[in-house]
Amino acid sequence: MLMNIKPETFISPGATSREGAFDDLDIDDALAASFFASVRCACFKQAARSLNTPVLDLRKRLERLEERLGAPLLVYRHNRLVPTRTGQRLAHWLQASRELAEGPPDDLGRGLLRIAICEPLLSDIACRDLVGYVRERAQARLSIRPECDTEALRRGEVDIGVTLGSVETVAGYGAERLGQLGWSLFIASRYGRSGRLPANRDELMDFMLVASAEARPVVAELLAGHRGGSTRVRSHGLVRTMVLGGACVGVLPSYSRELERNILALPGLIDDTRREDINLYFKLERLGEPLFDEMLRLMTNSFAERCSWLA
């Protein structure tokens, strides 16, 4: 049985040694797909990811099939799953009698789901959960981009989007407010200990100011009035890296110390009371699709879990 797998040495001849012995088995497409995926991937975990199913459920299905057959179907050899002779005969019988393809069943071929989440929210809030999602669902078809605006929504280019700014009514989309985002100035702790920190904008001129090129209005105003050096980059992650290693003062979300403890906030240098709404948009016509509904719940939960950052 699968829960006590040992290397195969010998399978005694019996009912399962003849392909005709499988004729009375009730094997549906889902069970056949579980078996083929396990053979193809040589790994239960990857097979489960391919089928978008919990690995324990997949193993239990195959274990019950082995119990009905009275013989193992898969064994480990050199840390890889391989079919036993009974498993090989079952594969041949399934292909011959039902003409089943060895790939995932057709209902796993979901349509492309287009997700757009503006930075820094993609990197800081949604990224971890998205990584976990794709790790467990190898057959999902996703397009993820790090920007979203209402123009893209109006053109119908986004299925699930997260924007910054005032919520707008967009035909064909539902909308939900997820929180608010503010901005602050930060410097790495090690540079803050070596000298006097800037207490006003005049003193800020002696520091390199770094911010995202797609700066929000309050950030753009700060950059426009800065009399010292400035660097604008198109990567939110690079802003944080330059703060940590480049002795720069960086414009980062107010919650940034929740993610990086080795930075110090510089209060009073930017209007941190000007906060922007975070809005979730979702295409109404796709509600009810399993992948869409699952992703919508994931995004809602991702922001809800960090509501204290976004209050």
From TrEMBL:
A Pfam family recorded for this sequence: HTH_1
HTH lysR-type domain ranges (all copies): 35-88
Domain LysR substrate-binding: start-end pairs: 109-301
Keywords annotated in UniProt: DNA-binding, Transcription, Transcription regulation
Gene3D superfamilies the record matches: Winged helix-like DNA-binding domain superfamily/Winged helix DNA-binding domain
Keyword DNA-binding: yes
Keyword Cell membrane annotated: no
Family, per entry: Belongs to the LysR transcriptional regulatory family.
Protein name: LysR family transcriptional regulator
